[in-house]
Amino acid sequence: MAHICICDDEEGILRYLKKQMKDYQVDTFNRGVDLLKLLESPAGAGVDLLLQDVRMPDMDGVQILKQVKKIRPELPVIMMTAFGTVDDAVQAIKQGAYDYLIKPFPKEKVLGLVEHVLEHRRLAAENLRLREELIGLDSRESAVFVSRVFREVYDLTLKVAASDANIMILGESGTGKELIASALHRNSLRRERPFVSLNCAALSDTLLESQLFGHLKGAFTGATMNQKGLLEEADGGTLFLDEIGDVSPAVQAKLLRVIQERDFIPVGSTRPKKVDVRFVAATNKNLEREVAEGRFREDLYYRLNVISIPLPPLRERPEDIEPLALHFLKRFAARMAKEIYTISPEALEALQSYSWPGNVRELENVMERAVILTVGSSVPADVIPLRGGARTAPAATVKTAVTPPTSKTAMVPLEEMERQHIQMVLKETGYHKSRTAEILGISRRTLDRRIEGFELLEEPESGSGDQR
């Protein structure tokens, strides 16, 4: 059943619309602030459509729309307006509203538009799912390598996949931890059951707990219906917990219970539910150090780390740069319907001379950009932004000027390399933190922690950088 929210300061309108939409789950609001509070809560993720009045007593309807688009950019919004405020509704369309209705509106027109929007949303979600499945066949399910060092990793993955032991995947960001987790599941006895993935660093504690364990109706403000958690969704299969090192001590304790007792308690409930899940966890942190410093539970560490699979960074498997680059070239060229088949020798030399601090994810990002900018059938060097080998942050913005390593023998601490790379990307994006996180392939929350830990962020010299 679709979940619809209606925000209007006229009680008569709210009653009328709720009555007409009796076949849907409907929540009504007479204040914009209450609506936004729901959308910011875990329950807000289940809202499928918003009907929003243009004129509200506490907040302007267009301002509410802007806030909604920040919280749920994909949520369709229909603006409701009186005849004299049509210009406001048109302005709302420019701000991202799906459509608008002019009061008074007959039942047939309202329901027709609502059904149209919901059907469009359903088809868009189905297309996205199918597209992700097709991409998944080309990426997550295909390990691309020729190097001996990664062959050893992949052989170990296949060897331990058939066991039911919990696995810990270790490695820097962007090394392919989810690919290995997917391979573990596909080659396990649980392959016919779900493989569920969750990035723990991308969610607040409250939302993470709700996503993992589910919640009951009324468990918290805005919880208007029961919701199954990912543990229940993964029952009989595999649950991949990425960035497990960022989980709070409270959630760590609850995860430990699940592993030990094979049951969990949904938020708002007192009754445990049985579950059979194989855990695969991943982190780019040194969990032994996190345990020693009291930030990660030792008992949970040993429960998850029955077998560990360390992934080498891309700089330690340079033989794989060319096949990976060609793999990404083929994928992005097909997606963009461009006839690009090769990488020029100069471009390939630039790729192979770079140290890749962002690993395979950074290479993927570079090749996507290259395909976008390439005109012709071969990727030229001038669309590969890696001239002269490894890039380093400008000396004025880093605390210690060192050259990123290009081989196993370079004696440079990993944390120092990561610090310099993040500073460099921050500077290149004009200190736009959301864009920086996207380029680095990490969540905004993780980036904020890196910035704070490394004491990186400085105001741009012009004072005009976007700090979002």
Can you tell me the number of structural domains?
Answer: 4
Instruction: Identify the CATH homologous superfamily of the largest domain.
Output: P-loop containing nucleotide triphosphate hydrolases
Number of strands: 14
Straight-line N-to-C gap: 36 Å
- Unreliable stretches: 134-141, 387-410, 461-466
Strand order of the biggest β-sheet: 2-1-3-4-5
Per CATH, which architecture of the largest domain? Answer: 3-Layer(aba) Sandwich
Number of helices: 18
Largest sheet: 5 strands, parallel
Mean pLDDT, nearest integer?
A: 83
CATH class of the largest domain: Alpha Beta
Helical content stands at 40-55%
Radius of gyration: 25 Å
Derived structural class: alpha/beta
CATH fold description of the largest domain: Rossmann fold
> Approximately what portion of the residues adopt beta-strand conformation?
5-15%
Shape: globular
Molecular structure report:
α6 (about 150-160) crosses α7 (about 175-185). The chain starts with a strand and ends in a 14-residue tail after the last helix. With about 475 residues, it is of the alpha/beta class. The protein is built from 18 helices and 14 strands. The chain folds into 4 domains: about 5-125, Rossmann fold (3-Layer(aba) Sandwich); about 155-310, P-loop containing nucleotide triphosphate hydrolases (Rossmann fold); about 315-385, Helicase, Ruva Protein, domain 3, CATH 1.10.8; about 395-455, Homeodomain-like (Arc Repressor Mutant, subunit A, Orthogonal Bundle). Mean pLDDT is about 85; it is low at about 135-140, about 385-410 and about 460-465. The radius of gyration is 25 Å and the shape is globular.
